[in-house]
Structure formats: structure tokens, C-alpha cells
Amino acid sequence: MLTKSLTSSRLSHVPCGIVGMISSQAFSTTASREEKKSYKLVVVGGGSGGITMSAKFGSKLGKGNTGIIEPMETHYYQPYWTLVGGGMKNVENSGRPMKSVIPKTVDWIKDRVVSFEPDKNVVHTKNGHEISYDYLIVSMGLKLDFQKIKGLPEAFQTPGVCSNYSLHTVTKTPQAMKDFKEGNALFTLPNTPIKCAGAPQKVMYLTDAYMRKVGKRDKANFIYNTALGVMFSAPKYAAELLKVAKDRGIAVNFQHNLIEVNSDKKEAVFEKLSSDKEPKETVTYPYEMIHVTPPMSTPEELQKSPLVDTSGYLALNKHTLQHVKYPNIFGIGDCTNVPTSKTAAAIASQSGILRKNLKAVMAGKPLPSQYDGYTSCPLITGYNKCILAEFDFDLKPLETFPIDQGKERRLMWHVKKDFMPPLYWHLLLKGWWEGPWPFRKLFHLGMSR
């Protein structure tokens, strides 16, 4: 049942964009006795970062010396779900068996970590395993907190309510587009860090393009309610996206955070984060269609561990990706407190830094590499249109191509649609892709870092 699976969800696979959900009851089997295992390197999480780092170290350390802990049977390329939600791709093509992406030199521990004991170099799993390690990589991703919005996830069982962030709800998006008659089309962004912060706008622009194609756009009021105070974190791209929204006739309301979906009345309630009152002022919008981007947070098992900062994220040195307290622990991806947008592109760039630094720690040498915060988000703005945002910790552009990537371009659409999926499956997950920096240097004649 949809409600049950959404309420009890946990998902750790996290690149740019969106995430599936699965019932925790699937992992309720408990071992009759605790079994102890030991590895040179243990990787927690079989998402983009976990698989990538397993591929990098599995062959280096030799068979039987690396273990990856991951309960799910299927690995999903989640950025693909933007295209699924836009009605252009089939969701079935977004996943592959987990067994097929885990390197053969790596032991797959089909289980879930429930606690960490970093002082003892041990993790414990749901099925009763005590797994010790010399080195640990944490790559647990983010979980979706639909239940923090009143009326969800139950409202997903009603027409017009959709989300590209879940395997269970992404196919509702194209259906909501087709069924739309007239009224408000709402698109939201929550008051928490999320994976691929551009995804809530991508679905909005694709919906706008669809409505224009089928002749329904004049019957739709497009409204983008974002908890942020800006259109996008990097100023260069924020300015262009605000212009795109204005040109498309989309109303933008900043510091509006979704707190309730009343599916009986087809109304959505937002709190005004700029309000000085307590409780904060609210505003209610009727909807014909609403795309929900849920609040997100790290898995509870990580939040309860001694590895996190006060916000519940893995506490790392943002430049070296090494834990601030435990030098034999590193992290990668969305579950970390590294202050950059949470995308697959960030994971690719981080993987190169982590590879060099962990290798140095294993050899007893100083850490040689520094992460500059590089991340990227292909901001689809319509059919055959895309702005390719690339930037660093300081939100300054760090663009690969020798053209202005702040403009809508057909080329960037093909980069997103045709180039990135095979790059993900055949290069990133196999440990061979560490970001576009070599091409950036080439295209800019060595003048770019």
C-alpha cells in the first residue's frame, strides 16, 4: 500500500535530483546470533558515492578486503526521474540490479547499519553483524521526510499530487499534467537541504512546456513557492532563472514553506518564513496540480551516531573529506556537511579527492588533495533547453565549456539527456570519472582550475 511504504521509507541512493522509497519492514529479519566480520575498508551505502569508492578501492586492496553495506536490491540513477516526470522516459530504465553495479572484488553485505562505534572501529547491522574496519567511508545519502508535511504521504493517493523525488510517485507527475484542466499548478521547495536543488524548477519548466504544447497553458496559473530567499544559490544562474520564470509567466514566492496538503479541499498551506509572528503567518493556495519536493534529512542511524555535527550531518573537513575527529573515517555525497549543492557531479569531483586522500592515509602520508566545492546542476528549462550550472564553494561559476553556460542552450540539453546517463553507468560507478576538470582545462587552454 502506498501510504505504508512512504511512511516507513528509507533510501540512501542520492545523486542530483530524486529518490525512491522502500519499507523498512523488508529488513526485519534478525540473525539468531551476532556474526563478526572484518575488512580493511568498509563502505556504508550503495548509492552513487558508495559504489564509486568501492570500485576505486576494491581492486586496489584485493578481493575480500573491501565490504559494502547496502540493503537494497536495485540501484537507481535518480537524475533520470526528471525526464520520467516530464513524460519523456520510462521509470523502468532508471534502475539496475545492485549486484551488477557492485564490483566483484567487493563483498556485498546485504544489510543495513544501525549503529556506529568509531572508537572501536566497528559498525553494527540490523541482521546482527558486527563489522570491524581499518578505514570507513560513509555514503548514506538522504531520506525523504514526506511525513513532516501534514496530509502526506496520504495525499499521493489523490489526483494532482505528485513528486519526482520518489520511485513510487514520479509516474504521477506526467499523469497530473495530462489530467490538468484549469487552476493553479504549484511547485514547492522545502526549508531543508535537498538533493539537486534545481530539480523542483526543472519539473516546473517541463510542465510549462507540456501545457503549451497541448494548448492548456492559458488555463494554468503557475506558482513556484520556495522556502529559499533566492531563485538559486549561485547568483549568476539565479538571475537567469528568475528571468526564465518571468518570461514563462510563472509567479515566484520566496520564503514560502509547504506545511500541509489538504487533498479533500485540494488546498496547500504554506508558512511565511519571513514572518516575525509565532506561529508564523500562513497562506493557503487551491491547486489543480501540486509537485511536492519533500523535506530531507540524513538517516536516523547516522543522526544518532557520534559522527555527526549539530545539524545531523556527517562532520567532515570540507576540503579533505576526512572526519573532523576520526582520521580513518571519510565521507562522500549527500549525507555530509560539506557546504555545496548535493548532486552526482559533486560526488564525482569528491571521489577524486577522497581517492587520493584515503590512499595517503593508508600509506601514512599527508593528505595531498583539497576539494574546491565543485558541483553541477543541469537546469532543464523546457524541451531542448538547459542551463548547465557549475560552481564552487563560493558560488562562483566553474564552467567546463568555453561558452556562457548561464544561457539556455540546446547543447546542454543533450549533455543532460544523452551524455550523462551513460557517463554515470559506465564511468562514474566504475570509478573512472572524477569530474570534468581535465576538459575544463583543455577547453580553457589551461587557464581554468
Question: What do these coordinates show?
Answer:
The structure is a single chain. The chain is α/β, with parallel strands linked by helices. Helices cover 26% and strands 23% of the residues. It has eleven helices and 21 strands. It has helices at residues 2-7, 48-61, 80-85, 98-101, 172-179, 199-214, 235-248, 300-303, 344-362, 410-428, 437-443; strands at 35-44, 66-69, 74-76, 95-97, 107-109, 113-117, 122-125, 129-138, 143-144, 161-162, 183-189, 220-226, 251-253, 256-262, 267-272, 282-286, 289-291, 296-297, 329-331, 375-382, 385-391. The strands form six sheets. Strands 1, 2, 5, 6, 7, 8 and 19 form a seven-stranded mixed β-sheet that branches. Strand 7 and strand 8 form a beta hairpin. Helix 2 packs parallel to helix 9. The N and C termini lie far apart (50 Å).
